[in-house]
Amino acid sequence: MGCAGSRDKGDESSKKIRKPKAWKHSEAITRAQLTQMREEFWDTAPHYGGRKEIWDALRAAADADLTLAQAIVDSAGVIVQNPDLTLCYDERGARYELPKYVLSEPTNLIRES
């Protein structure tokens, strides 16, 4: 037996994800620069450790709306430590850190016309 509130903490992988809080890049950047930063991160992410299929699932979740992203991380068995997906683990305990720039746009993004 335990207290009633303790049972909700048992399954960390079911933590609801949310969009990251607003953030600002060190200097204003264009969408093209942001896209390049994202591509460079995703191209090198598997070299940081962890499993490629988890990195692929996290990339798909980062590009999806919240409902689909939740389904992706749940089906991949990703354990969400931070609800904004900046820190996750797989079932084997490997750590996956995502920078905010792959999850959302900065407040100082230059809108090209």
From TrEMBL:
UniProt-annotated stretches for the region Disordered: 1-24
Species per Swiss-Prot/TrEMBL record: Buddleja alternifolia
Protein's name according to its UniProt entry: DC-UbP/UBTD2 N-terminal domain-containing protein
Residue ranges occupied by any DC-UbP/UBTD2 N-terminal domain in the UniProt entry: 14-112
Lineage, opening ranks: Eukaryota, Viridiplantae, Streptophyta, Embryophyta, Tracheophyta
Segments of skewed composition (Basic and acidic residues): 1-15
Record-linked InterPro entries: DC-UbP/UBTD2_N, DC-UbP/UBTD2_N_sf, UBTD1/2
